[in-house]
Amino acid sequence: MSTDQTAALNPGSGPRRPNTRFLFSHPAHLFSLGFGTGMSSLAPGTVGTLFGWASYLVLNLYLTVTGWATLIALAVVGGIWICGFTARKLGTQDPSSVVWDEIVAFWIVLLLITPTSFVGQLVAFILFRFFDAVKPPPIRYFDRTVKGGLGIMLDDLVAAFCTLLVIALWRSI
Fold first, then answer.
1. Cα torsion 51, 74, 95, 8: sign
2. How far is the C-alpha of 34 from the C-alpha of 163, rounded, in Å?
3. Residue 50 CB neighbour total at 10 angstroms
4. Helix, strand or coil for residue 167?
5. Tell me, what's the pLDDT at 13?
6. Mind spelling out the 3-state secondary structure of 38-68?
7. What local confidence, expressed as pLDDT, does residue 116 receive?
8. Is the N-terminal amide bond of 115 cis, ω within 30° of 0?
9. Greatest CA span in the chain, whole angstroms?
10. Other Cβ atoms closer than 10 A to 14
11. Which of 52, 88, 92, 157 could form a disulfide with 15 if both were Cys (CB 3.0 to 4.6 A apart)?
12. What is the pLDDT of residue 16?
């Protein structure tokens, strides 16, 4: 077993980057790491959000609004636990590789702006990534003060709200 594999499976040895073995070592890791998209070495949050966008387009072919509401509610509640669990196993508060929060938050954005064009979805993507990466107030407050799985999920939900607020203001002008 390599040093990276040992570190990824041995909690308490300090912060580490997940590997494939870690990804498949527990179902919670598979979800929290966005089915591997969070393991991207370049902009894992962006890659996770792109996965959220693609999965929304596929799932939207099969889900009603009620189905989406149920899925999102379960994904948020379950996400608090799975994101916190994976963060603890990785030995850090909010690992960049945990992208379930981006996926679910972007599903909310897309659901609430649908129907819209590809350009509308792209604008929503850019706005969401801006709010999630820059973390202007009030997002920064939640990112810094709420810890654990709830904190991981909450700052992205607030980023989704800010995205939707900008889109609503833009549409009203």
1. negative
2. 21
3. 20
4. helix
5. 56
6. HHCCCCHHHHHHHHHHHHHHHHCCCCCHHHH
7. 94
8. yes
9. 59
10. 10
11. 92
12. 81
Q: What is the pTM of this model?
A: 0.90
Residue at token pair 């603890």: 88
Q: Encoding tokens for residue 15?
A: 């912060």
Task: Please give the average per-residue pLDDT across 99-104, as a whole number.
Answer: 98
**Mean predicted lDDT score pLDDT of the chain:** 93
What's the CA gap between 137 and 110, in Å, rounded? 22
Helices (H), ranges, the chain: 3-9, 20-23, 27-32, 44-59, 65-90, 100-113, 118-134, 139-145, 148-172
User: How far apart (Å, rounded) are the C-alpha atoms in residues 130 and 166?
Assistant: 12
Indicate whether 138 pLDDT > 80. yes
Q: Distances from the Cα of 150 to the Cαs of 31, 101, 113, 116, in angstroms?
A: 16, 10, 25, 30
Q: Using one digit for the tens of pLDDT, what is the confidence trace for 9-57? A: 454 555 688 999 999 999 999 999 999 999 999 999 999 999 999 999 9
Give percent of the chain above pLDDT 70: 91
**What DSSP state is assigned to residue 78?**
H
On whether the CB atoms of residues 109 and 164 are closer than 8 A, the answer is yes
- 3-class secondary structure, 121: helix
Taken as a whole, the chain contains a residue count of 173
